[in-house]
């Protein structure tokens, strides 16, 4: 059986994190999202994998070339939609196939439930169904799909994962997969609904915290690098090669720490935290429920909670980040999320800066003593 992974999109609602990388390559628990999808396919014996790339395609191709199995790469030159992306791969598809988005996590068991069924869709209940295609069912079959309704008639949504035959291409007339599925149903064809065991999507950047929490549950323990005898470690913790953990530091898992990090002394890392490679935490700093990407440094006496950072951020000493909620306009949608902060790449913030419920764009410079609360700062901003 073949699998087609759509990884051509940018993920605009996850900005600023997707300005410099496609959504499929966002690292969660220190691994790109698309890596989990490929692993789930391989565990089900599916090795004939096609990946459609587009936005920042060179980065995706580089990642795929580093894998131990050959992957067929197809380029969508203009990001016109999911159905157009699938059409780009049509000449490579020889029979029945799985269709998967490249920026959602799916577990191997769910793939196993659907892979041998002719014409099926993986579905899952979601507390915010209006962000997805809402699925209406009848006798275990998909009756219709309502795309992102304002008032949802159901909590059951499409995961975007399908088991299809090559005949599906005759239902494609536009650029959207959901429209093609609706056309397929209008012809009287059956589409079986299969409930996924585990599926995670990050619609907005703070949703990565929930995905990170879920993926850290399966964290394999490994303790490499140099760990002080005075370090206290509880629960599942993975520490990468070359990392140095200073004395009197307390780490409570699940936590993953990448390679060549410098932690402590006298730091505290709380559960559900991912630190990328070459991350530096100076003494007397606490961090919890956060996703910190590569080459980020956090100054001493700081407190970082419910935070996502891009690469190369520089947060000076006495930085405080705490969660709160406020109304935000994200790509024309008004929502009220609760989180600490989301930073793009290459952020610099001076000492004694306070953040809460804010999104900071890429290459932003913030002077010391600033209070950034319930705000969205665009790329290249300067706060004096």
Count of runs of 4 or more consecutive helical residues: 6
Taken from the alpha-carbon principal axes, the silhouette is globular
Tell me about the largest β-sheet.
9 strands, parallel
Low-confidence stretches: none
The CATH architecture of the largest domain can be given as Alpha-Beta Complex
How would you state the average pLDDT, rounded?
92
Q: How much helix is in the residues?
A: 10-25%
Strand order of the largest sheet: 14-17-20-23-26-29-36-39-42
Distance between the termini: 57 Å
Which topology of the largest domain does CATH recognise? Spore Coat Polysaccharide Biosynthesis Protein SpsA, Chain A
Task: Look at the structure and name the CATH superfamily of the largest domain.
Answer: Spore Coat Polysaccharide Biosynthesis Protein SpsA, Chain A
Q: What kind of oligomer do you see?
A: single chain
């Amino acid at each position: 059986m073949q699998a087609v992974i759509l990884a051509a999109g940018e993920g605009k609602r996850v900005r600023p994190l997707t300005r410099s990388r496609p959504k499929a390559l966002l690292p969660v628990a220190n691994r790109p999202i698309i890596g989990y999808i490929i692993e789930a396919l391989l565990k089900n014996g599916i090795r004939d994998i096609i990946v459609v790339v587009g936005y920042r395609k060179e980065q995706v191709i580089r990642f795929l070339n580093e894998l131990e199995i050959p992957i067929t790469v197809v380029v969508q030159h203009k990001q016109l939609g999911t159905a157009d992306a699938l059409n780009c791969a049509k000449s490579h598809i020889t029979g029945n196939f799985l269709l998967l988005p490249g920026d959602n996590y799916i577990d191997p068991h769910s793939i196993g439930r659907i892979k041998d069924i002719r014409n099926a869709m993986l579905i899952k209940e979601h507390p915010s169904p209006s962000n997805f295609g809402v699925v209406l069912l009848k006798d275990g079959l998909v009756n219709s799909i309502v795309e992102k309704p304002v008032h949802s008639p159901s909590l059951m949504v499409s995961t975007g994962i399908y088991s299809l035959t090559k005949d599906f291409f005759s239902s494609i007339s536009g650029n959207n997969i959901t429209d093609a599925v609706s056309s397929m149903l209008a012809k009287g064809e059956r589409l079986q609904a299969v409930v996924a065991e585990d599926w995670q999507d990050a619609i907005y950047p703070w949703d990565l915290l929930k995905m990170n929490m879920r993926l850290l549950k399966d964290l394999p323990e490994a303790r490499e690098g140099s760990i002080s005898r005075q370090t206290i470690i509880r629960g599942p913790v993975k520490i990468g090669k070359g990392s140095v953990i200073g004395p009197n530091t307390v780490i409570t898992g699940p936590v993953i720490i990448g390679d060549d990090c410098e932690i402590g002394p006298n730091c505290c890392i709380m559960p559900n935290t991912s630190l990328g490679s070459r991350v530096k935490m100076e003494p007397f700093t606490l961090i919890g429920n956060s996703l910190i990407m590569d080459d980020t440094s956090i100054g001493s006496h700081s407190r970082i909670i419910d935070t996502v950072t891009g690469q190369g951020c520089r947060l000076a000493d006495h930085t405080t980040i705490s969660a709160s909620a406020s109304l935000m306009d994200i790509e024309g949608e008004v929502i009220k999320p609760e989180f600490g902060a989301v930073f793009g790449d290459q952020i610099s913030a001076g000492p004694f800066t306070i953040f809460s419920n804010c999104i900071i764009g890429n290459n932003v410079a913030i002077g010391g003593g600033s209070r950034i609360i319930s705000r969205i700062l665009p790329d290249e901003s300067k706060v004096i």
